[in-house]
Every structure is written in C-alpha cells, then in structure tokens.
Amino acid sequence: MSKYKKQSDPSRTNNYKKKRKERIILSILIPLFTLILIGAVYLARLFATVENEIDASFAEIERQQPVEKVNPIDEPVSFLFLGVDNNEDRQLGSTRADSIIYATLNPTTHEMNMVSIPRDTFVPIINKGTTLRYDRINSAYAVGEESAMVQTVEEWLDVPIHYYATFNFAAFLDIIDELGGIEMNVPVAINEMNSDDQTGSIKLEPGYQTLNGEEALALARTRKIDNDVKRGERQQLIIEAIIRKALNFESITKYTGIAETVGSNMQTNMRLKDMTAIAQTGLNDSFSISTHIFEWSSFTERGMDLVRIQPDSFEAIQTELKNALNKTNDSTGSARSDDTAS
C-alpha cells in the first residue's frame, strides 16, 4: 500500500486541486455517461429490455482479497470508471484504458469526488496480487483487464474500489446523439480523426457551441495538441455538459433508449439493484461535485513518455478521497470525519 503521509497543512491542499461544484437532482458519478445510465435504470427499471441489457453487462472480477460490501443508500461508495477505445471494427488487440477515473459518492454528506488518473502515470502494475513491473497505469488493462486495473489503482491510491464500470467509446457517439448533442465551451481548436479513423475529418474552433457525438468524441480523445492531463480536463468538461443535458426535462423521454445503448456497450460489477440504490441516494437531495486534478511532471524511461504525479499533490488528493469515504453526519447535521470507519 502507499507509504505517503497525510497532508498536514489544509492551505496546501487548495494549491493542488481544482474543484467545480454543481448542484444536481440525480447524484450519480459519471466519467462519460454513467449518470444517464443510472438515471435511466431508475426511471425505466420495469422495462424488460433495459433490465436484460444491464444483466448481460454484469461481470465480476477476480480479487485476492474481497472488498468490504457497502449499502450505497446510506454508506460511502467508490467507483473506478474505465473508457476503452476498441470494438470489432478497430481490432486493436491488446487494448489499454484510454480514460481512468476514480470517484466517491457519500450519500450522508451529499458529496461527490472525482479524479482523472493520467493514462501515462508510472506505477507498479499488479495482477493476481503480484507486482509485475512498473509501467503506464493504463497498461494494466492489457495485462488483466478490469481485475488488474482495479488491483493496480487500489494499491497505488490506497483506497477501496467497490464498483467498476468499463465503457466502449463507441456508445459515446450514440448517447450524445440521442440527447440531441451537448452544449459546451470548447477550450481549444482541434483537427482530429473521427470514429472511423479518418484523419482531419473533425475540426473544432474554441468557443461555446453544440457538439454531436463524433465531435465530442474527438474532443475527448485528442491529446497531441498538449498532453494527457489536459485531455483529462477536457473530458471532465464533457462530463459536465452531459450532466446538464441529461438533467434537462426534455431528455427524460430518451432515457430508455440511452440505457439500452449503454448497457450493450458496458461491463460492470453493478447489478440492477445496485444502480437503483445509487440513484435513490440523490433523488431528494442536491449533491456537490468536487473535481480534482493531479499536479504532475513528465519524464522518459525505456523510451516511453511518462507522467510522474507530484508527491504533495498525490497526498492531498489521496487524503480528500479517503476523507470522502469516511465522512458521516453527526446528530447536529454537520459533517465530520469518522476516523474509526473501516
């Protein structure tokens, strides 16, 4: 497990994290479109088609030590969201995770925390309880898919992962198009390939605009213009745009179709009852969303361009995540950190 010490000066924490808080009706953590999925499941769970799609997406992972079970309705819960850019047409073979997001949801304090992990972060890769080598964190998926990714992230961050959900980016296009596109402020100009790998077919200029699925996917993918960390920031902007559009009243009628699309392009260890319980935590209360960004530096080893997370930044964000999984409300309704929580 991680040997980093906890951050002792709260003022330093603020120098290493970027928070964006948004009050929402549904309290679901999504890296790409999980909020839509769980909201759809909650609203359309009686439809056999949706239930069949969700059941078909279930896949448990191999663990050396089982994680403690929690009740998402009244206990803090954590997620690992993975985005993979692979399908039968692309035939990429040894797939790596293109998007890695760790998130916590605390139904008691009504707080959500989310951090993007740069795919090139240099960490020990762990599979079946054994450290194989130091490598890019996204290479764990090629070694042992979700099982190795969960073990690697748990060991590196020293936090539990209760649920995982892996999405194929192919569903990304369909969902955004089902919503009628998303409105957002594009931060940079891009010239990117489309989902068929046609170079230069997607061109965007900075500014507020409506993006269709192909354009949003291109913006989420691109990193040649800067780096992997900046790409993670752009993906989080897209997440917020999806949240806003999904919560639009006009989008509710599209939830069933969206759930079917996601269910057929997802793998998760969440059952339908788990998703329903998670959705229930936020239907009556507004949550705050805190987005954290690691400070980092680049270096080269074995001919690879890699990312090293700054120790102070790591400690500060790790402490935030651990606190988020331990916080409860006392009898007066104020939040506190329960140091005795497991």
TrEMBL record:
Keywords: Membrane, Transmembrane, Transmembrane helix. The chain crosses the membrane at residues 24-44. Residues 96-246 form the Cell envelope-related transcriptional attenuator domain. It holds the Pfam family LytR_cpsA_psr. It comes from the Bacteria. Belongs to the LytR/CpsA/Psr (LCP) family. NCBIfam families: lytR_cpsA_psr. This is Transcriptional attenuator, LytR family. The lineage of its organism: Bacteria, Bacillati, Bacillota, Bacilli, Lactobacillales.
